[in-house]
Amino acid sequence: MELRPLGNTDILISPIIMGTWQAGKRGWVGVEDDQVVGAIRAAFEAGVTTFDTAEIYGEGYSEKLVAQALSDVRDRIILATKVFPTHLKAEQVITACEQSLQRLQTDYIDLYQIHWPAGAFNSDPVPLSETMSAMVQLKEQGKIRAIGVSNFSRELLAEALTYGPVESLQPPYSLFWRQVEKDALPLCVERNLSVIAYSSLAQGLLTGKFGPDHQFPAGDVRATNRLFQGETYVRAQAALDQLRPIAQRYNTTLGNLALAWLIAQPQTSAIVGARSADQSAANVAAVELTLRPEDLASIDAIGRTVTDGLDSNPVMWNFAA
Questions:
Q1: pTM for this one?
Q2: β-pairing, 4-5 with 12-13?
Q3: Which of 57, 112, 173, 233 is catalytic?
Q4: Which of 21, 75, 127, 161 would you label with 35, given CA atoms 20 to 30 Å apart?
Q5: 3-state secondary structure string across the chain
Q6: CATH classification of 4-207+256-290 is 3.40.190.10, yes or no?
Q7: 57 has catalytic annotation
Q8: Distance CA 118, CA 58 (A)
Q9: In a structure prediction context, what are the per-residue pLDDT tens digits for the chain, which is 321 residues long?
C-alpha cells in the first residue's frame, strides 16, 4: 500500500485508515471484543498502517482494544486518537493525553486531534488558543508527533492554524456527505493539510447492504443518521442503483467503489471501520482500484443526487452538538 505524508510532516499514513469507534461499543449493537481485535489485526496484516480512535469511544475502551491488537507492532504503525470537547482546558488536555497514552500502551501518539470544537455537546466554551497551547506543549514534549482537528469549520481551522502547526482535518466525508468540499477542503489544499475522512462509507449505507425498509435496532447510532431517514434515504437507494453497474464493470463492491472515489479526492484518506477480519481485508482492496476519469465524474454526479438535497448542517446525526 502506497503511503502518504500526514500534512507537512514526515509521518506517513495509509490511504485506508482503520476506524475503531465500534470497538468502544457505545452506540453500536452486536460488537464483540474478540472480533474487533481480530479486525484491527487483520487490517494491519493487510497493509493498513494507520489506526484512529478516541477517548470518548466507550470511555477509553476502544483505545484499550487497539492496544490489545497492536501493542506488539507499535513501531510499525501510526496511532491517532482524539480529546473530547469536555476536556479542552489546558490542564484537561494534558491529563487526557496522559490517560490515552496509558490505555494505548505507548509513550507517544502520532496524531492527537481535537475531536469537536469547544462548546459542542454542552461543553465549556474554552478559547481555542488555550487548547492549542496545550497541544503545542505536548508536541514539544514529544508526547505527540502531530496535531489535528476534527469537525472544525474552515473558520475554526484557520484560527487553529494561527496558534500552532495543525496537520490534518477529520471531517465527515463520503460520496453521500460532502459539506467539507464547500467549506474547509480548499483551505486544506492551500495549506497542504491531510483530510482524514470519517464515515467514509456513510456508516455502511454506501455498501448497499441496507434495503429500502431497513430499520436499525435501538441503541444503534445509525438510527439517528440523517442519511437513513425520509427522502434522503430514498434518494440514496436510487443512487446506489445507478452505482451498481459501475461497480460491476470494475468487478468490485459498491463499498470499495465509494472508497476508491473518496481516496482519489485531494489529499484525502478514508477511515473505515470493520467488525470482522474479513471486512478489514475487503476494505483494503479499495486501494488497488484505479477509476477512470470519466467514471470518477459519473460517480461524482450520482453522489450529488443525494447531497444536493441536504441542508448545510454539518452534523450527520440528529443529536445536539
A1: 0.94
A2: antiparallel
A3: 57
A4: 75
A5: CCCEECCCCCCEECCEEEECHHHHCCCCCCCCHHHHHHHHHHHHHCCCCEEECCCCCCCCHHHHHHHHHHHHHHHHCEEEEEECHHHCCHHHHHHHHHHHHHHHCCCCEEEEEECCCCCHHHCCCCCHHHHHHHHHHHHHCCCEEEEEEECCCHHHHHHHHHHCCEEEEECECECCECHHHHCCHHHHHHHCCEEEEECCCCCCHHHCCCCCCCCCCCCCHHHHEHHHCHHHHHHHHHHHHHHHHHHHHCCCCHHHHHHHHHHCCCCEEEEEECCCHHHHHHHHHHHHCCCCHHHHHHHHHHHHHHHCCCCCCCCCECCCC
A6: no
A7: yes
A8: 20
A9: 899 999 999 999 999 999 987 766 565 555 678 888 999 999 999 999 999 999 999 889 999 999 999 999 999 999 999 999 999 999 999 999 999 999 999 999 999 999 999 999 999 999 999 999 999 999 999 999 999 999 999 999 999 999 999 999 999 999 999 999 999 999 999 999 999 999 999 989 999 998 888 888 877 878 888 999 999 999 999 999 999 999 999 999 999 999 999 999 999 999 998 888 999 999 999 999 999 999 999 999 999 999 998 988 888 888 644
Name residue 179's amino acid. Answer: Q
- Residue written as cell 514534549? 141
